[in-house]
Every structure is written in structure tokens, then in C-alpha cells.
Write a structure and sequence with these properties.
With 288 residues, this protein is an alpha/beta fold. The chain is built from 13 helices and eight strands. It has a single domain (5-242), classed as Phosphoenolpyruvate-binding domains (TIM Barrel, Alpha-Beta Barrel), CATH 3.20.20. The model has no long low-confidence stretch (mean pLDDT 96). One of its GO terms (molecular function) is oxo-acid-lyase activity.
Amino acid sequence: MAGNLKAAELRRLLAQGEFILAPGIYDGISARVADSMGFPALYMTGYGATASMLGLPDAGLATYSDMVGRAEMICSVVKTPLIADADTGYGGLLNVQRTVRGYEAAGVAAIQIEDQEMPKKCGHTPGRRVVPAEEMVMKIRVAADARRHAETMIVARTDARTAHGLDEALRRARLYEEAGADVIFVESPETEAELERIGKEVSKPLLANMVEFGKTPRVEADRLKKWGFDIAIYPGLGFSVAAEAMREAWSYLKDKGTSAGIEVPQYRGMHELMGFPEVWDFEKRWVS
């Protein structure tokens, strides 16, 4: 059986010291746009995927089937390695095993699992509760063992900072490293000093969440790398600017009764982006 080639590529980039800047994608259009731009990895955001699929908040409402289906669709249209949000693993240890194998079969390079109680809540929002660290340790061990390909990466996220403080979050980070996580994700640090401390105290590859309108200061990639981070995700940037652009465009349409003269930027190469030239070539060959 062939290995996980996209995961192997992501591991190679990390091993050679390349900083992984990963935009947040959530549907087929965002995936194709980001894939065309040469990023080293993409990030499937749970917030964006839930919002675009269900029109609902990221509050544990999207199921395993919803999310693995979205991951499979995205992997089918991109060449870039995908880091994918898998919430809590969607249940207990047997659910975690199924989640890892399902995401891996979908083509995901790195699978993110967090230590929240179910139903989970979106990071940076109030009221998040975490399970005992020992429970998450077992999930990570199961996740690492469940992989059919050694290249597939497990990202362990802790949400302990907000309710329990940075010391507890870092204690958990060390436990999750020892349990076999490939990447550590300490969610919601609140200052640059906290980001620096995390970078000093975590030895495995480290992910920073540069979310829009969140608790964590948004820091440029060069400084994150200097502090010891290896990956930065931008989960909210794409859907927030897309939503605002739609609001502006439709406001213009409502006011003017036409789209002529609109100044909101429009993507001029949509047919090419979505693969229509391949359809037309196919029809020339096969359709009389």
C-alpha cells in the first residue's frame, strides 16, 4: 500500500526548517484558490466548514460524517498537503480510531484533535471545558496507533489556557508530546510573551493559530519562527473577507438594481479555476 505522500511532503518541509503558512479553507472554491497560490500546506477550518455546510456555529454540531466528507472533497481537488480539524475525534477512543483512519483515507496529511469535552466549542470563544489530561493522552496514543501510514501526522491541541492558565496548558503540551503527537497546538495564548514562552517550552513542531478577532495577538511569520513555531494557520481570514465582499456586492445590487459598475473585486478566472477547460476538452474528444 502506498504511503501518505502529502503527509511525507509536509514532514519533509518541517524537517528542513521551512515555516508552514497555511490559509484556512472550507469549501471547494476556497480550496482551489488557495491550492493555486503555492502555499506549503492548507488548513481545513472547522468553523468555516461548519458554517459553509450547515450555516451554523462551530459548536459541536457538525458530525464526523459531515467533516470527513468535506475533507475528502477538498483533498480530491487540491495537490497541497491538508491539515484538517477533527474536533475531539467525535467521541471516545474507538471514535478516534475511526476518525484517524477516515481522515487518512480521505487524503489528509495532518489530523488535529483537541482536548475539549463534547460537545466542543470553537476556540477563542467562552465556556470551553477540557477533559482530564490522561483522557486526551489515551486519545493521542490511539490516534498514533490507528494510522495506516507512518507519515500521517497527529496534531494535538489543548484548550486549557483559557480556563486553567498557561502553566496547565504547557503541562498538557508536554504530556501530549510524550504520548506521540507529531505537532503541538496550544490554543488561545493571550500575549506575545505567552507565545514566546510556548515556543521555548515545546520541543516538537509547534502550531500557532492566527485567528481573526481572537484572543491571540496576530504576529508575522518571521517572529513566530524566531520564537520556535513551525506552522501558522489563518482559519478565519478567507471566510471573513469573502462574507464581507458578498455583503458589499449584494448591498450594491439591492441599492442600484444592477451589478454594472460595482467596485468590489471579482475573480476573473472562475471557469479556469473550477476546471471548465478540462470539461470542454473532454467534450471535444468524446461528445459529438
